[in-house]
Input
Amino acid sequence: MGVLVFILALIPLTGGQDLYIMKAESPGPNVGKLVPKVKKTASYLYIIYFILTALEILCLWIVKMPLFDAVCTSFTTTSTGGFGVRADSITSYSPAIQYVISVFLFFSGINYNFFFFVAIRRFKEALSMEEIRGYFTLFWISTAIITLNILGKCHNVEEAFRYAFFQVGSIMTTAGFSSTDFDLWPSFSKSILILLMLVGGCAGSTCGGIKVSRIIIYLKTIKKELAQLCHPRNVKIIQIDDKPLGHNILRSANIFFIVYIMLFGLSTLIISIDNLDLETNFTAVASALGNIGPGLSLVGPTKNFDLYSNFSKFVLMFDMLAGRLELFPLLVLLSPATWRKK
Output
């Protein structure tokens, strides 16, 4: 979701320009239309977005959250923006409020196509989406593992589950809320959160990160390569949802990963000039590229980025913009070929 998709919902374009604009704005390796007209697709996406937001406002108001706080929190949950009304983010709110936000964080990381299929009662098609199954699996396995791992630091199982559920939702959807200082968790749980920072949510959602759909493509590519090494004459086609992926989509996904890793490594190297520890620098760049907010160590949920020099802040700001725009639009803008006269 974004400004360009909003424009598509209001202003009709012709000649296929609308689909190109949607591809530029929408995250993920492949962008398609829910209905034949792109304008209607954009409208449906925003209807889903506003319905989720309105439902969360209502649910938060029911569990006694102040209306102003409920409106602000709901808009930053469904947009996975993570802006907190209070200085401690979500920590001082009641467990009931934290559960409501956790549920809507989980919903906000889902591909909006899933909600569309559910709304028109195409349940089989909705549940057969590989990306959705992958997102559900990764989300709940991570929640279960972290719950078990942090039990010793919590009063009971319910509190451990609530913290794990909330933080997995917040980090994986790249919202960046915090309900506790997860920098104090065991290293194993923090390592899982770092991996979730990199993965992000589903394509077709408001999340940042590499996206679950691309991770599925990479896993299938590895599986195909291993199969061909064992059986050189074997012909395998990579498919998602029983549909073969074209060469352009695979090439785009692979190049995205290469550029992501190169930018990640270069940014980490540059900001290390400030002489901060590796955990701080690594998670600061992961947070910036994924548009998350908090990292770990000196940029943890109870701290901020003020300790970095102005130069490092500019690097991190560049990473934020690049991550939000899926890397390539910003890199194309800065490419000399873009400005060279023919």
In short: Confidence is low (pLDDT under 50) at residues 2-9, 13-22, 24-28.
